[in-house]
Write a structure and sequence with these properties.
The complex is a heterodimer. Chain A is of the alpha/beta class. Chain A is built from 14 helices and eight strands. The longest helix of chain A has 17 residues. Chain B is an all-alpha fold. Helix content of chain B is 54%, strand content 0%. Chain B is built from nine helices and no strands. In chain B, helix 1 crosses helix 4, helix 1 packs antiparallel against helix 6 and helix 7 crosses helix 9. The chains are: A alpha/beta, B mainly alpha. Chains A and B meet through helix 1, helix 2, helix 3, helix 4 and helix 9 of A and helix 3, helix 5, helix 6, helix 7 and helix 8 of B. The complex binds iron/sulfur cluster (2 copies). One iron/sulfur cluster binds next to helix 2 and helix 4 of chain B.
Chain lengths: 274, 160
């Protein structure tokens, strides 16, 4: 596998939150990570709704993306908890030879094959493995108290994702500390933002959001820090009267010297004062 | 209807959900941690008990009230994976046409555009302002994705 990566931005970030993509690219550039956009990318097959309607569609579509990365001999970087879970769970399912054979029978019809050579890295995972480079790239420490909200699908299922723990996760906090921020923990077991019910049942989604929104508000943090665009939307747009939210790559980009307008911070609805 | 092993629903139960549901010890951990149950949504432990008993197939609307946070499966001490059981039950409910309109639209969007969320005028404007690549889904990706949908389960929910 080469040192270069394919960047897979997913659907929600490039369509509705392109400023989160801008901050992620800024961070990757500052770290000197070599990457190109994943060629012929499409939706990971969203793992909350679509995956549960048709498991086979999810698996084959995700396998298609993994196969493309394999053809280019590169690993994938994801920017979204949903994409990360989707691709990692698919790669895990595809370790079963019978499953892989069935999936490849369908991929064969579009001229592709998955052999199981590509690894999938979530941006926080990639950052956490590069402490020295991240620290060296920080030129303007952001000494804000933040409350970290990793989001369910960076953590669970922990056996498959293997990135952080469900109980007292620490990866997001550790990376934030390299940017000069302090983090507080509102919850030992991070609770769900309700994003998965958005569009399906707004009332219940709002009730779920209310739990973390309230505990974050009294945590002592001045803003919520999350690596997930679904959590970001819940806190930036759906939440009423709660703390503003920063996407992890936004914090890191700011600390690495990005001008706030350059990474589109003005497009947050729930305004943040730095 | 008389149920025999030849009944496809029984076959499905035996092959897919029973191996998980029968591991459930009814400890109630999943119920305690489930944010949906706390607010009147899905009740994972009760659902597992009904599935384990083979007491028909729960296909009530509450299946769609799971937020898929996976806390239940993570906390389950028996490896019964209630989150996955719910996902399997949803798939079956969807196959019978019982699914939220929102997800039917999303399936259609994935089939037609290769995306779960729509690109809009705002998308193009913001991407340009931020100096990002246009980022359209390629023709090739679209052709391949729709071919996959036609050959797999999501094909049931889309119109050409
Ligand atoms: S995955 Fe669904 S059932 Fe399980 S804890 Fe989360 S909301 Fe409840
Ligand atoms: S946590 Fe597991 S064993 Fe306990 S009730 Fe739920 S499914 Fe059953």
């Amino acid at each position: 596998m080469s040192d270069a990566f394919y960047l897979f931005s997913g659907c929600l970030i490039p369509t509705r939150l392109p400023f989160l993509e801008a901050s992620s690219r800024f961070v990757l550039d500052r770290l000197g990570v070599a990457y190109e956009d994943l060629p012929d990318a499409a939706c990971c097959v969203e793992p909350i709704g679509l995956r549960t309607m048709a498991r086979d569609t999810w698996l084959v579509s995700a396998a298609r993306m993994l196969a493309i990365a394999e053809e280019g001999d590169r690993d994938i970087i994801t920017l979204c908890n949903g994409c990360y879970m989707s691709l990692r769970e698919a790669a895990h399912s595809l370790e079963d030879r019978i499953v892989r054979r069935r999936v490849n029978a369908i991929l064969g019809a579009i001229g592709r094959e998955y052999r199981g050579k590509t690894a999938v890295h979530h941006l926080p995972g990639l950052l956490s493995e590069r402490e020295e480079a991240v620290r060296a790239a920080v030129v303007r420490p952001i000494a804000l108290p933040l409350v970290s909200h990793p989001g369910c699908h960076m953590l669970r299922p922990s056996g498959v994702l293997g990135l952080d723990a469900s109980f007292r996760p620490e990866v997001v906090d550790r990376i934030a500390s390299w940017a000069g921020a302090t983090t507080v923990r509102a919850e030992e077991w991070p609770s769900c933002c309700g994003g998965g019910l958005s569009g399906i049942h707004e009332e219940l989604s709002a009730k779920l959001l209310d739990g973390p929104a309230r505990s974050h508000l009294t945590s002592g943090g001045r803003a919520i820090l999350t690596p997930c665009p679904f959590c970001f939307v819940q806190f930036d747009i759906k939440q009423k009267g709660g703390l503003p939210v920063l996407y992890l790559a936004e914090l890191m980009a700011l600390a690495m010297g990005a001008a706030p307008e350059r990474i589109g911070l003005q497009h947050h609805r729930n305004k943040l004062s730095l | 209807m008389r149920r025999t092993a030849a009944d496809p629903e029984i076959g499905d139960w035996l092959e897919r959900t029973a191996p998980l549901a029968l591991q459930c010890q009814q400890c109630g951990e999943c119920a305690a941690v489930c944010p949906s149950q706390r607010h009147g949504g899905i009740r994972p432990a009760e659902l597992m008990a009904r599935v384990a008993a083979g007491a028909g197939w729960p296909n009530e609307d509450s299946l769609w009230l799971c937020a898929r946070c996976m806390s239940c499966s993570e906390r389950c001490p028996s490896g019964a994976d209630p989150g996955e059981v719910i996902a399997l039950l949803r798939e079956r409910a969807a196959g019978r046409g019982q699914l939220p309109a929102y997800l039917r639209e999303e399936a259609q969007r994935f089939f037609k555009t290769g995306l779960s969320f729509p690109r809009t005028g705002m998308t193009r404007k913001l991407r340009k302002e931020l100096g990002l690549p246009v980022g359209e889904i390629s023709e090739k990706a679209l052709t391949e994705c729709s071919e996959i949908v036609r050959r797999t389960g999501l094909g049931r929910f889309v119109r050409e």
